Structures are given as structure tokens and as C-alpha cells.
Amino acid sequence: MEWDHFDYSKVKEIQERFLPQNEVVSFVALKDGESLLDVGAGDGHYSLMFATPNPNSKITAIEIGLNGAKRIKEMISQSKLGNIRILEEDACVKRDYSNYDIIFFSTVFHDLDCREELVRSMSETMHDGARVVFIEFKKDADVGPPAHIRISEIELRDIMERNGFNLVDSKGMEFHYMHKYIIKQKK
Fold first, then answer.
1. What is the CATH number of domain 3-183?
2. What are the residue boundaries of the structural domains of the chain, listed by start?
3. Are 175 and 140 in contact (CB under 8 A)?
């Protein structure tokens, strides 16, 4: 997919109509002072949503698309928030996740070709108690990407459990589901 020309306005419309902000904030449960990585941050909607009430938290928005990164920069500038940084990088680049308390994916995990490697890398570097939160489209939802590229709740749980994570919370919505995983205690 060509991310530099992606239409983020459609994503924003879906977020506003079908993903109530208060439910997402409550489910993620970011505490002020914790750090969060927003993977595939798009236009920065969620990064700003988490940064605003948590001024002592460090929010990192990772976005490869030039259009998305530009929109995040504009939104940060307008908001005057100092606790968001942008990584203009591919989410599939291997990295150290030890500095993050929460890794957040909103309707992006199904698009990644590196899912297994990414989850393995998170498992190897995340600290005990760190959480991974996903919002994904249900397979049978009337909105979203084509059904054949979506990832079912069972497929997601299998990938995560195979790589050392336990499902600790889930919530179904009309067109989406949310999952929260915690890294199994390391020996």
C-alpha cells in the first residue's frame, strides 16, 4: 500500500462514528507517567488523545507515510503538547520496545507483513507488565478493509500467545474488537 497518499479523512470518520473515544481511553488505561507507542499512528488522532490528559506520559507516534507524519506534526504544533514525538519509520523495522509500557495498534496490524516478527521482537524486549492493545475490524463488519486481509480475534490471539503474551481483556464493538495482552512473566 502506498502510505504517502493514504486518505486519513476516511479513517478519522470511522474513528469518530464507530470507536467512541471514552471507550478506547478506558480500555487502554494509560496512566499519567507511562509511555505509549502508537504504531501506524496515521494522522495522530490517538497519540493526541492519549497525550492530552497525561502530560507526564511520553507518547511516541510511529508513522511511515509522509502525509500522516505531516498531519501529526501539524496537530502537535496546534496543540502545543510537548509529550509526543514522531518516528517516521517503518513499523516492521526491528527495535527495542523496553521503554514502552503500552504498545497500541489501531486498525493497522492487519496491514503489516511482519506481524510474527514484530510480535516476537516485542516479546523479546518488552518489560514485565507491559501491555499491547489492538483495535481491529471484525471479519464480518460492514466497514473496513476487504475481509480477506482482516485478522480475526482467534488469529490475533494465536499470534500473541505463540509469542509469549496472554490475553487479559477484550471488548466487542459493532464493527471492531479490542484486545489487551500482557507479556508473560519472564524468567
1. 3.40.50.150
2. 3-183
3. no
- Give the burial string for 9-42 (b: 16+ CB within 10 Å, else e): eebeeebeeebeeeebeebbebeeebbbbbbbbb
H helix or E strand, kind and range, residue 75:
helix 66-79
Residue 11 confidence (pLDDT) = 54
**What single DSSP character describes residue 65?**
-
Interval 148-169 mean pLDDT: 96
Cβ atoms of 140 and 132 within 8 Å: the answer is no
* Residues 135 and 178: beta-carbon distance below 8 Å: yes
What is the dihedral angle through the alpha carbons of 24, 135, 169, 61, rounded to the nearest 10 degrees? Answer: -70
Ranges 11-25, 111-125, 172-186, most confident: 111-125
pTM over 0.85: yes
Give the whole-angstrom CA distance, residue 72 versus residue 61. 8
55-75 average pLDDT score? 86
- CB crowding 131-163: b at 16 or more within 10 Å, else e: bbbbbbbbeebeebeeeeebbbbeebbebbeeb
